[in-house]
Structure prediction request, 226 residues.
Amino acid sequence: MVKRGPTIMLEKAFVGGPVCGVDEAGRGPWAGPVCAGAVILDVENPRRIPKGLDDSKKLNAKTRETLEVEIKKKAVAWGVGFASVEEIASLNILHATGLAMCRAIEAMAVQPVYALVDGNYRFKLPCEVKTVVGGDAKSKSIAAASILAKVARDRLMTEMDGMFPGYGFASHKGYRAPIHAQALLELGPCEIHRMSWGPVKLALMGKDPLLAYEDVIQDELPFEEA
Prediction:
């Protein structure tokens, strides 16, 4: 059986203006900002669409970095946006993710009329929104957006490793990991830790952060359509 990857069928179904794919990276880590990517691919010229686009989680770091260059070179427009740890704390992770998505779209040189957004939550964005569950495996533009978001956030967290040594941010990028849990217990949280996250709260109580449920981030998750 031939394995199918994302296509441009969803993008081509829209008429009336440019369609962008939107996706986030960093919704669940214990530390660091949430990041979003937005990409408008040239669906009328398949040669301008990079080969190998797929869900960023299915690609290794080297492949993602290579595709990042290709996406930025060949896309009609692209943008990346962040929402800080402070904004996550103030707005909650749901609304901070939407803020990062808005910033990614607003950063594009060409503004879209429609946005294909990974997941089932209809964020309020600067254009019409269509949610696509599992979108990074179905839409090439969402896959491209997921790659830009993932690479941009990973790059930032690697930089944070130099600013906040001892936590191992360059290796785990702020996510759940034994080395991260041990550092939290020994050093306590730093400026970029999400203080409301269960694992961080456990560390402040002197308890193992890994005891927190892996799939529970905040009361707002999982994202569900209201």
